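Good day; I would like, with your permission, to put a structural problem before you. The record follows directly beneath this note:
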Amino acid sequence: MAILTAAFVLMMQADSGAGQGGAPLGTGSSALVEMVQNSGPVAMSVLVVLLLASLYSWTVIFGKISLFNKATKESRRFVRAFRKATRLQEIAAIASDYQVSPLAQVFEDVYETYKRQTGGYGPPHNLIPLERSAQTAASEAVTKMETRLTWLATIAATSPFVGLFGTVIGVVDAFHGLGTAGAATLRAVAPGISEALITTAAGLFVAVPAVVAYNQFTARIRVFAAAIDDFCRELLNSLEEIPVRAATPARTPGTDGPREAERGVYK
């Protein structure tokens, strides 16, 4: 993105400088501006496309970094609260405070299935629907985290070829102009080829950050998926052990009935 932005900024500076008496620029800056200005319409179109792709890529990158950091922090806090609680109702009351955490999303879906079976109290009647609900919720949570990652992969894979397309067209134009002029010298062909190579460099500058970010995000999503699977097993084990606690009812003082069944794993 840096080379694309710099090229357009320098081109605008050159235009304003020309309107003010042609103030001189630095040698390197003026060379870059001259090459961009002398680029053909195809090369300019390629640079615009790559600039838009780079802006979108960095938007996705910063958005995912923020999302994953928030999800990590909230998941840790939710797991601590989950393991300290003694009843599902306590966790359900605070789950809405961890909306970014995929673990909280899985818990809410499983708890809704549990409430449909039992009304929110007592042991579950059938664990199979709870297992299916946990699997579905886990898949939805991972899919949600993968949103827009395919665009990063697409930008990373296609940007070098888009830049190469601009280079090929530029080289063709340079040799065509060389043949028309009839001067077969390096001085005659070098400027056109150097202008054409800008698009290849721009394509690489767009593709490299997208590749690195995609690989890093994919690795983090695998970590999240493993944590979600572990949490699903924890939650299902907890639900499964409710009958164990309910089988040995504890009497609440002043009543003859058994106390509300608590979770069997987390005390």
